[in-house]
């Protein structure tokens, strides 16, 4: 990668890290707070110092130094890497031997997730905690702040070849998006446009995007009774193309449709670029180690269905099932396609590797896949299964449909199985077991452990 701060054209192409840069790099990466019980005030100060150090490091023109290391190891950029899906994706990438650059400004996650990913890595038996920590670099910036992003990536680009970007950072609450659509446009669309432009100018060619099954909300409800195939909703390049289908979508769903279109444009602009859009259905469960959880900072957002079940089990509260009667089969509650989050993470890593190592030789450089199980269970059945695992009979109250709720949402996974060889490996029972273990739900009741 060229150094854009070098004014001398002869050094611009050949600049390599110097001893001083490497010292700074080690300062940033090795002064970790692992395992210590440190008050949050000091932790925040540490983060500030770290981000200042990154700024200093990346603002030094490398033509000032002599070169020391001509080789650069492969690294993957993960935005939103400390969130629920992101932390599992980071764990999966570590298991596959990657160095990770995590862009996450912690608006909906906590900095100790880095340590938790390290603990999960060690528990999984893939390697030591220390190795995991050394291979993760947290860059606490807003992914839409292109100046900070450029500075950080140019700096890290001297040590690593960034082989691809997995873009997960987003605001994700359907309910909140109905109240505050502007926030969703800004965080999920405007920033993404700037982010992709920055990636293009940095020469990063492979982009993996986490879209959502909510994009199928634009279909007539009767279509959704069968497993949904990807081509039912193609990638739209503009809202105009979407036309009359916009009606069934929430602002969150629209932001995901627009995000898919942005990835398509990114890929079209250069023949060497590839993109994979994953439409995530319902990620649930946790890594079996129990170290990684869905732990949103923003408690105002209701969280996913498992968060709500967890609260009912912990507080012995009634669980509210929305839209009962919509589902139309079995117990008539809504049918959803629940997939273990570790399977989702594995699928995302497989998508990245398909871009990076095999390269898409076929004409289609943008792929769209459902990350779905192909089957579905009702929300009430899920509640019952968590109840069995936690040994708590959760009481259920039937409530009316919420805006944006659809009766059945199940994805067809034939395409991803055929092209990437991905199928979910973990059952819904494994989901409930790992979930109850991570949240200590059995212990809470005092009749287990
Ligand atoms: N969890 C689900 O049920 C689900 C379902 C379908 C799709 N998705 C998509 O998957 C992705 C990840 O979801 P998740 O459940 O892990 O969400 P999450 O909120 O747990 O994680 C998102 C992470 O991104 C970070 N982030 C958000 N905006 C940022 C910004 N501007 N700059 C830097 N960091 C930022 C947050 O701090 C958080 O750590 C999202 O794109 C979401 O839309 C999630």
TrEMBL record:
Q: What would be one Pfam family of this protein?
A: Epimerase
Q: Do you know which Gene3D superfamilies this protein is assigned to? A: NAD(P)-binding Rossmann-like Domain, UDP-galactose 4-epimerase, domain 1
GO MF terms here are: UDP-glucose 4-epimerase activity
Q: What would be one Gene Ontology cellular-component term for the protein? A: cytosol
One GO BP annotation of this record? monosaccharide metabolic process
In its UniProt entry, what is this protein called? Answer: NAD-dependent epimerase/dehydratase domain-containing protein
Where is the NAD-dependent epimerase/dehydratase domain positioned along the sequence?
76-354
**Superkingdom, according to UniProt?**
Eukaryota
InterPro entries associated with the record? Epimerase_deHydtase, NAD(P)-bd_dom_sf
């Amino acid at each position: 990668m060229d150094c854009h701060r070098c004014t001398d054209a002869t050094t611009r192409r050949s600049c390599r890290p110097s001893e001083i840069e490497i010292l700074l790099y080690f300062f940033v990466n090795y002064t970790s707070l692992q395992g210590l019980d440190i008050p949050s005030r000091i932790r925040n100060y540490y983060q500030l110092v770290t981000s200042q150090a990154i700024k200093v490091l990346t603002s030094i023109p490398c033509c000032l130094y002599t070169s020391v290391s001509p080789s650069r190891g492969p690294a993957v950029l993960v935005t939103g890497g400390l969130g629920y899906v992101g932390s599992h994706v980071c764990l999966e990438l570590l298991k596959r031997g990657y160095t990770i650059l995590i862009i996450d400004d912690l608006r909906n996650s906590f900095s100790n997730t880095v340590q938790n990913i390290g603990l999960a890595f060690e528990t999984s038996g893939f390697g030591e905690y220390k190795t995991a920590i050394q291979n993760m670099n947290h860059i606490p910036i807003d992914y839409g702040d292109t100046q900070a992003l450029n500075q950080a990536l140019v700096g890290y680009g001297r040590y690593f070849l960034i082989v691809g970007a997995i873009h997960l950072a987003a605001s994700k609450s359907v309910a909140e998006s109905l109240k505050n659509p502007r926030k969703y446009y800004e965080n999920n669309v405007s920033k993404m446009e700037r982010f992709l432009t920055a990636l293009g100018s940095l020469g990063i060619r492979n982009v993996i995007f986490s879209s959502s099954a909510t994009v199928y909300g634009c279909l007539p409800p009767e279509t959704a009774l069968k497993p949904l195939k990807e081509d039912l909703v193609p990638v739209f390049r503009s809202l105009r193309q979407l036309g009359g289908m916009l009606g069934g979508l929430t602002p969150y769903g629209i932001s995901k449709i627009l995000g898919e279109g942005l990835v398509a444009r990114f890929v079209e602009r250069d023949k060497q670029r590839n993109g994979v859009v994953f439409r995530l259905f319902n990620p649930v469960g946790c890594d079996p180690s129990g170290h990684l959880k869905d732990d949103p900072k923003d408690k105002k957002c209701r969280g996913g269905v498992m968060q709500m079940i967890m609260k009912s089990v912990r507080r012995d509260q009634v669980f509210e099932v929305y839209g009962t009667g919509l589902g139309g089969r079995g117990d008539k509650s809504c049918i959803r396609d629940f997939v273990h989050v570790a399977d989702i993470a594995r699928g995302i890593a497989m998508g990245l590797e398909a871009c990076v190592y095999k390269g898409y030789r076929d004409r289609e450089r943008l792929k769209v896949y459902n990350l779905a199980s192909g089957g579905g269970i009702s929300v009430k059945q899920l509640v019952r299964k968590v109840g069995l695992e936690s040994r708590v009979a959760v009481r259920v109250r039937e409530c009316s449909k919420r805006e944006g709720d659809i009766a059945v949402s199940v994805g067809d996974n034939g395409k991803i199985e055929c092209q990437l060889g991905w199928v979910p490996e973990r059952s819904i029972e494994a989901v409930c077991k790992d979930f109850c273990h991570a949240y200590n739900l059995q212990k809470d009741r005092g009749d287990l452990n």
